[in-house]
Amino acid sequence: SNWQFFLLLSGKPLEGVGEAILVLSGKGGVGKSTVTVQIASSLKMLGHKVGILDIDLCGPSIPRMVGVEGCDVLTTPDGKWIPVSVNNDKNFSVISLAFFLDSKNDAVIWRGPKKNAMIKQLLTNIAWDVDYLIIDTPPGTSDEHISVMENIRDCPVKGAVLVTTPQMVAVDDVTRELTFCRRTGIKVLGIIENMSGFVCPNCSECSNIFATGGGQKLAEKYSVPFLGKVPIDPSLTKCLETGESYLERFSQSEGSKIMKNVAECF
Ligand code: ADP
Predict the structure, then answer these.
(1) Atom of ligand 1 nearest to the CA of 59
(2) Closest ligand 1 atom, residue 230 Cα
(3) Does ligand 1 have an atom closer than 6 angstroms to the CB of 195?
(4) What is the largest CA-CA distance in the chain?
(5) Total Cβ atoms within 10 A of residue 19
(6) Using an 8 Å Cβ cutoff, are 55 and 134 in contact?
(7) What is the 90 CA–ligand 1 centroid distance (Å)?
(8) CA distance linking residue 230 with residue 64, whole number of Å
(9) What would the pLDDT profile of 125-183 be if each residue is shown by its tens digit?
(10) What's the CATH superfamily of 2-265?
(11) Is the CB of 236 within 6 Å of ligand 1?
(12) What is the dihedral of CA 45, 187, 178, 120, to 10 degrees?
């Protein structure tokens, strides 16, 4: 693939970015990418210029979610990658590792140095022009996270949003994320409890499929803000599977109300 060529051309990290927000989770499948897209959409709906940087090496899924899967990334004359616009709106754009992979599973078998080089590229070689950049990171706290932090040490980073599901197992994993943030000096903007209950489309009653309140308890225990609970929303799943008219459908979803409050706090 073509990324090695650009290694010589990397510029300053996160140039053209007003402020960066990291989205972290203890493990995969809790809705980190979903929350990334929701935060970005909410900030966009508040009138900001927003970008999403998808460096989830385990499964870069953002392009599919916002309907730009398989798009080509163009370059500026000085060799920077130009973010791909969502719905042809240049004030809502995405760069994902997925755009640079020959096959979806490529990155999974990469060794450390190659991962770190790619992360560096994605943090330093993009022609952003955004107020906020929401960064979707891999799950856990791996070498990749350290690599991210090393590269953006001197950048304006607003902080990290931690995503968990309500069960205690997921909550335990988030504890490690909190420790990571403390050690690396990233401010914790707060915890979001995703898949928190299921609102029945027929009777509007909320069933708590998993235990509830884990995220809130964790936030209290570590004195960090609790940003809210996002219920399981079948219409949201559907819109994320296809990416079709993403913003419009998202604005009607239950999660969008919560995320709007979250975005207004930033
Ligand atoms: P992660 O990035 O943590 O691996 P994803 O954001 O990819 O997780 O979410 C995993 C799956 O769960 C996706 O198919 C997504 O559409 C779905 N999902 C996440 N949050 C919700 C929610 N609140 N309601 C319905 N489906 C959700």
Answers:
(1) 4
(2) 23
(3) yes
(4) 58
(5) 16
(6) no
(7) 25
(8) 21
(9) 999 999 999 999 998 888 888 889 888 988 999 999 999 988 765 677 788 889 999 98
(10) P-loop containing nucleotide triphosphate hydrolases (3.40.50.300)
(11) yes
(12) 80
The domain segmentation of the chain, as residue ranges, is: 2-265
DSSP secondary structure of 72-133: PPPB-TTSPBPPEEETTEEEEEEEEGGGG-SSTTGGGG--HHHHHHHHHHHHHSB---EEEE
Whether the predicted interface score ipTM is above 0.95: yes
Distance 72 CA to ligand 1 centre (A): 25
Is residue 30 lining ligand 1, measured as CB closer than 6 Å? yes
The residue type found at 71 is: C
Residue 9 CA to ligand 1 centre (angstroms)? 35
Q: One-letter amino acid identity for 208?
A: N
Helices assigned H by DSSP within 152-244: 168-184, 214-221, 234-242
Please name the amino acid found at residue 151: N
Taking the C-alpha atoms of residue 148 and residue 252, their distance in angstroms, rounded to an integer, is 34
